[in-house]
Amino acid sequence: MARDERSVTPQSDDFSAWYNDLVFRAELVDRGPVRGSMVIRPYGYRIWELLQADLDGRIKATGHQNAYFPLLIPQSYMEREAEHVEGFAPELFTVTHAGGKELEEPFVIRPTSETIIGEMMAKWISSHRDLPLLLNQWANVLRWELRPRMFLRTSEFLWQEGHTAHATAEDALAETMLALGFYQDVAVEAAALATVPGEKTPGERFAGAERTFTIEAMMRDGRALQSGTSHFMGTNFATAFGITYTSESGAAELCHTTSWGMSTRIVGAVIMTHGDDKGLVLPPALAPYQVVIVPIGRGDQADQVAAAAAELATTLRAAGIRTHVDDRPQLSPGFKFNDWEMRGVPFRLELGPRDLAAGTALMSRRLNYQQPDAGKEAIPLEAAAERLTAELIAFQAMLAQRAADFRGEHTLRTDSWPEFTAAVATGWALALHCGEQACEDEIKAETTATPRCIPLAGEPEQWTCIRCGKPSAYGKRVIFGRAY
RNA sequence: CGGGGUGUAGCGCAGCUUGGCAGCGCGCUUCGUUCGGGACGAAGAGGCCGCCGGUUCAAAUCCGGCCACCCCGACCA
Predict the structure, then answer these.
(1) Which of A27, A256, A321, A441 has its CA 20 to 30 A from that of A176?
(2) Tens of pLDDT along A460-469?
C-alpha cells in the first residue's frame, strides 16, 4: 500500500473521518454485531482502566462506597418520575420475554440507575443517622442511539454513576459540586483536557434534575464535548420513590439526592483533543505503554540487543514506567516507529548496536509543542529511568498546556452577533443570553450552536442577550458551541 | 423519519455502461534475502459477487422486489 494511503486522514480534511479511521486502526475498538454496539479491544480498554482506577480512588477517598444494582429495571420504576420517563423513553431497550414466555411487566435495560437505586435507598434510609448515603456503581448502560460514534455515542457504554442522598439541600448541592470536582480533576490531571466546569441551562438539564453541572471539553475541530455531569435532584426523586428520613426532631423529611457520571466517552475526548495527523497522542497517565523500546539489529547483534532491551525494560518498569519491548521479528524498525506513533505512545527508545556501543538509547518524543526542532536524543542507559520519569511528567503537563492554549485561542468573548456566528463556526463564544428556550432554538437553527454551560468561574455581568437584546438571565456569560 | 451513498476474499476496492473462465492492492501461509523511518523476491491459500425472484444458451453485470450498512440532519453522555 502506498504511504499516503496508510497514514491517517488529515484532520483538516474531515475530522470525523480522521477519528473514525483512527479508533479502528489504532486497535482501540471493533464494530459490534449490533448497530451502535462497540467492542473495546484490550489496548482501548486499558486506557479506560487507567482512568477508572484514578477516578475510583478519588471517589472512595471521600467516603463513597461502591455497590452494584441490577441491569434490568421494572418498567414501572422508570415511570415514577414524570420528567425522567419522558426524557429517556425514546432511548429505552425493553425486555418483554423471559423463559420463553411474555412477561407480565416488561423490564427496561438501565439507561441510568436513578430509579432502581432510588427504590433501594427508600428501603435503606429511615433515620437522619443513615445520612448521607454515598453510593457509586461501575456499570454498563444501554441507550438506543440514532447515530452512533465510537466512544462518543454508542448504544452500550461503560461508566461510573454516583448516587447519594442527603438530609438537606445544602448538603446535596455540596455533594454535587464535590463530584464535579472529581471530574474536573481527572479530566485535567489524568486526561490533560482543558475542561470548563459550569452549569447547564434549563433546556440542557438532565431529565428530572433541578440543576445540572458539567465539564465541557473542546475538541481539536472546535466542537464541545460534555465530559462528565453532576446533577442536583432536589427532592424530585425522593418524592417519586419515597426516600424519607426521620429528623432529630422526629419529623418525616424528604431526602435531597444527587447523581453524577463519567463514561467511556472520555476516551473519545482524549483522542479528539490530543490526536494529530500521525495518530493518537496519549497523556502518560492514560497511556497503556508510556515507553516502547524498539530493538534494532540483525544476525549476531540481534541477541545482544534483545538482552539489552529486556534489561532496560526491567529497569524502567522498576521505576514504575509502563514499558513495552516491540520484538516482533518480521517487522522493520520504520514500521514499528510509525505503528507506535499511531497508537499514541509518548516516548520511544531505539536500541541498536551503535547505541549499545555508546551506552545510550535514542529517545524520541511523540509530540513536541512549541519546540519543533526537538528531534531524537541519545540518553545514557544508566540514567534512562530517571530521565524518562521526568520526561513523562513534562509530557503530561505539555499536553494539558497545549489543550488549554488551544481552547483559549478558539474561544471568543463577544457581544456582537456577527462575531458570535463566526466564533461558533470554529470554536466557542462567550456571550450573554436571555435564557429563553425560543431564543436558544433560534440560535441553534441559525448556527447549530447550543449553550454548553455557564462557567462557574464567570464574573457577574449585566448586559443584554446576544441574540434578542432582552436582559441576560444568568448574570454571567454562557459558552456557546457546536456539540458532539 | 428526511436527504445522499454503498453492498464483490480478513480489510480496502476495480469489474456493471456494452451479459461470456472471479480480478487488483494490503493482509495471511511457506522459503530465501533484509532490518537505524512504513523492506524485497518467489511460490501458495482464501469467494453463496447482500438476499429472493425474473429475462437469457449464459447474470457480479439487465429487470422487479426485499434486506443490511455507511455519511449528513433530527434525539442524546
Answers:
(1) A441
(2) 987 889 999 9
Cα distance between the two ends of chain A: 33
Interatomic separation, CA of residue A30 and C1' of nucleotide B53, rounded (Å): 36
Cα(A458)–Cα(A475) distance, integer angstroms: 9
Chain A residues 300-319 with Cβ under 7 Å of strand B are 302
pTM of the model: 0.95
Given a cut of 70, whether residue A10 has pLDDT beyond it is no
Are A305 and A362 in contact, with CB atoms under 8 Å apart? no
Find the Å distance, CA of residue A160 to C1' of nucleotide B66.
43
The C-alpha angle with vertex A243 and arms to A239 and A248, in degrees rounded to 5, equals: 115
Residue A324 in grid coordinates: 513495552
Task: Take residue A248 and report the three cell numbers written for it.
Answer: 432529630
Can you tell me the ipTM of this complex? 0.88
Query: Which residue in A50, A49, A264, A42 sits closest to A150, CA to CA?
Result: A264
CA distance A119 to A425: 45
Strand B proximity: list residues 42-81 of A with CB under 7 Å.
none
Grid cell in block for residue A78: 422508570
Q: Which of A35-39, A132-136, A165-169, A351-355 has the lowest mean pLDDT?
A: A35-39
Ordered alpha helix ranges (H), A13-160:
15-25, 42-60, 75-78, 82-88, 114-124
Q: Is the dihedral of CA A16, A149, A366, A352 positive or negative?
A: negative
